[in-house]
Amino acid sequence: MSMATSANFDPFSQSFTLLLRDGTPFNVTLNELDDFILYSVQISINYAAQLGACLSFLIVLLVLTKPDKRSSPIFAINAVALTLNFLRTLLQCLYFTGPFNKVYAYFAVDYSRVSPSDYADQVAITVLTWVLLVCVEVSLLLQVRVVCITVRRGYRHLILAFSVVTAGLAICFRLAFCIENAKSILSLESLFPLRWLASATNITTSISICWFCAAFITKLGFALDQRKKLGVGAFGPMQIIFIMGCQTLIIPAIFSIIQYFVDLPSMDSNVLTLVTIFMPLSSLWASASLDYRKQSTGKPKFHGGILLGSNGTASTGPLVDKKCLVGPLSPSETATSSSSQSNPPSPSNIRDQGVNVDLESQKMVVRGLRHN
What is the pLDDT of residues 258-305, one digit of tens each? Predict the structure, then answer.
């Protein structure tokens, strides 16, 4: 090796040769291999943290929820949401420890040793995401219906109609993305040509979560202001629900937006986990606060037409036919579609990925197509 060549030689970017099944050689650089390993480690940590958080909160929910409240729809929705998200993140982790993520399979685009059950697991990820979204959107519709029950009929119908439209759009776009995603998994094709669908899915679900939560916390905000004017300023379940509603709106919305600007693997997937763990936490917190207040007073309190019910929720506005208006405590969610990329993915830059969010494995399959 000449002196000129030695001076320009970078040992950290040198390449090595691999062979395809037919003996055809192809080169892989150390930078590409480093990116592959780093990406796998980072995203595995991300999904493992989400998995642990969901499992922990599911155990907490099952242990701390009183037996008489486990038959309530709120408990069922919270438990189902946590279970679905746990299974979703578990299957994502299995991908990065399975045959899809082998070095040779990735760089040679050779998935001949991937079993049908591995394909089925990855298709299940996108299906579980859609089921989770349906569960959350339905619960949000119910929650807005309950919150707005004291609003004038015309406004109530308008709010509910807009809620149905936003929820329906989010569910339909997610279903379309789910179908195309499953097809791309089975055919090992890129979803890059359908990046507009991923972007639309992300936008509609983000609008949905923002709308529902804004309607929810706005109504409770007016109720809290009414309580303050009536001299009822004690911190209780209604304040807790209001705080957690704001948190459920703001934090997932932030993650939904910064995924377009922050170069971290699967940043958008955290939105699902954040929402599913926040609402059970608020339910338990509010229930514990109400139980403490009931032990101190011996019965639920009425303040200015607001009933603090025995199920850890607060009702707002005047009582209607003496019925307890149960405040919403169901989980909410944002979309988890990945942001669209400006350029097609390639192994030389593992972070320039396709638009398949539910299946991170599909992104990695696509980036190896260059070697065919």
Answer: 777 777 777 778 877 887 787 777 666 656 555 555 555 554 444 444
**Phi, psi dihedrals of residue 124, rounded to the nearest 5°:** -60, -30
Q: What residues contact residue 246 under an 8 Å CB cut-off, 6+ apart?
A: 213, 217
pTM of the model: 0.71
With H, G, I as helix, E, B as strand and everything else as coil, classify residue 313: coil
Amino acid at 6: S
pLDDT in the model for residue 211: 87
Cβ proximity of 132 and 84 under 8 Å:
yes
Cα(80)–Cα(62) distance, rounded to whole angstroms? 11
User: How far apart are alpha carbons 228 and 185 in whole angstroms?
Assistant: 55
The answer to whether the CB of 367 falls within 8 A of the CB of 101 is no
Mean pLDDT on 204-216: 82
CA atoms within 13 A on the CB side of 280: 28
Two tokens, residue 127: 């299906």
187/294: higher pLDDT: 187
By the 8 A CB rule, do 119 and 186 touch? Answer: yes
Torsion, Cα of 117, 118, 119, 122 (10° steps): 120
Q: Token digits for 67?
A: 């037996």
Cβ-proximal residues to 302 (8 Å cutoff; 6+ apart), any chain? 308
For residues 41 and 76, the answer to whether their CB atoms sit within 8 Å is no
Return the sign of the alpha-carbon dihedral for residues 236, 241, 270, 47.
Answer: positive
Tokens linked to 204: 């509609």
How far is Cα 94 from Cα 106, in angstroms, rounded to an integer? 16
Task: Find the angle CA(74)-CA(79)-CA(81) to the nearest 5 degrees.
Answer: 95
